[in-house]
Amino acid sequence: MVQKAKILLVDDRPENLLALEAILSALDQTLVRASSGEEALKALLTDDFAVILLDVQMPGMDGFETAAHIKRRERTRDIPIIFLTAINHGPHHTFRGYAAGAVDYISKPFDPWVLRAKVSVFVDLYMKNCQLREQASLLRLQLEGGQAGGEDAKEAAGLLAELSARLAAVEEQAEALSKQLDESADAAAVATAAHLERKLTGLRRALDALEPGSGGGASPMPSQT
């Protein structure tokens, strides 16, 4: 059974959280509520999330400050953040969101289909990363356990080839997505493409380290997302 990805929804207004849950329920993932920046940071201490939907305007710790805390933590700094805001202060306000580490910035009221599509991209990437890490960990155990001969060697080589092929398919999808995003030439496109490229580069480097003769058989896989 494939484990569901967790999506963190952060907003101080219960009706907004309810609306987000209604929109994202079709993705069939685990939706986690947080009604403040402090509550979001607590949730991030124990759980791994595929993506964070973060409201900008919140009393106390606002979205920008919350994002800054998230990006300072090694455990959570690579989790993609989509900022949600009910107001539009112009380019400077939007730039502040990207400077705080957002991969996208959506103004309310937003198109439910667009929001769902954007979130699904990061959920899909997160799930593929998890599968690759699990299979790479299994392969690493085989290699470190001295299974270097006969059928075991063939099994390890086959698994490595399968992992490489799967990652190549993800890289191809990401390249196509990056080309589409580049055409829009906005800050969200640049941030999203850069995030995808960073994650896939880390995965490819870790996988290459497992190749026979690379000298990196025990290299750890990168963190989630």
Q: What is the straight-line distance between the termini?
A: 21 Å
Query: What is the average of the pLDDT values?
Result: 77
Amount of helix: 55-70%
Which residues form runs of ≥5 with pLDDT under 50?
215-225
The ordered string of helix (H) and strand (E) elements is EHEHEHEHEHHH
The tally of helices reads 7
Report on the biggest sheet: 5 strands, parallel
Q: Categorize the overall geometry.
A: elongated
Which class do the helix and strand fractions yield? alpha/beta
Radius of gyration: 19 Å
Biggest sheet: strand arrangement: 2-1-3-4-5
Strand content: 5-15%
Tell how many strands the DSSP assignment holds: 5
How would you sum up this structure, described in words?
The protein is an alpha/beta fold and 225 residues long. It has 7 helices and 5 strands, in the order βαβαβαβαβααα. It has a 5-stranded parallel sheet with strand order 2-1-3-4-5, with helices on both faces. Strand 3, helix 3 and strand 4 form a beta-alpha-beta unit. Helix 6 runs antiparallel to helix 7.
Summarize the structure.
With 225 residues, the chain is α/β, with parallel strands linked by helices. The protein is 58% helix and 11% strand. The two termini are 21 Å apart.
